[in-house]
Amino acid sequence: MKINQNTVLQGKRVTLVPYTSAHVPRYHEWMRSEELQRLTASEPLTLEQEYEMQRSWREDADKCTFIVLDTERWSGQACADEDCMVGDVNLFLTDLEDPTLGEIEIMIAEPSYRGRGFGKEATLMMMSYGVTNLGITKFEAKIGQENEASICMFRKLHFKEVAVNSVFQEVTLRLDVSDQEKRWLLEQTNHVKEKSYTELKHPGAGAAGCPGSSALTSGLC
């Protein structure tokens, strides 16, 4: 999706940046893991196929992807993107009958970052972006039944279980973004700064005080 190709969202723990070709080698290494393949229901790809996938996702109008970085390492230690990557977060707008429905996916690929709030903040930031920039009013998450940690996290974010697919061993959780839920979501992400990626390409330039940054507040970004 081109709408976020120059967007950086900087939070306390995580920074979200657009998925570029520079991120592909590290992403490809992650997806060689049988555990991640199982948890994400993914098939292994060659490196060239991974590059093709990245280009496709950049162009497709129904997929919004951010790479999840460690904010402290990225902004505080002059760390290049690929050395600070911890996962990715995606929104799929694939329901042709309901363009306000987004299927959300979060992957914290680095084991040392799991269970520390990185996935939760990245998910909240993506949900806020989806509501304020993409017109999303309903979210769904489809998660393997064995992935109890992810199911628990989404329930804490007010998602409710709406379906279980015993064939694919998958649970579907859903959140309808009422006015009350939208206020809660924006409160949870009012610390997030939106910046220009092209202005922050140099390592270490992502500090919170950079000129041109703005807080994501209700209706404004």
TrEMBL record:
Top EC group: transferase
UniProt KW Transferase keyword: yes
Domain named N-acetyltransferase: residues: 13-160
The entry's keywords: Acyltransferase, Transferase
Keyword Transferase: yes
Entry superkingdom: Eukaryota
InterPro entries documented for this protein: Acyl_CoA_acyltransferase, GNAT_dom, NAT9-like
EC number(s) per entry: 2.3.1.308
Recorded GO MF terms: tubulin N-terminal-methionine acetyltransferase activity
Reactions the enzyme catalyzes: N-terminal L-methionyl-[tubulin] + acetyl-CoA = N-terminal N(alpha)-acetyl-L-methionyl-[tubulin] + CoA + H(+)
Functional note: N-acetyltransferase that mediates the acetylation of the N-terminal residues of alpha- and beta-tubulin.
UniProt family annotation: Belongs to the acetyltransferase family. GNAT subfamily.
Protein name as annotated: Alpha/beta-tubulin-N-acetyltransferase 9
Organism: Apteryx owenii (Little spotted kiwi)
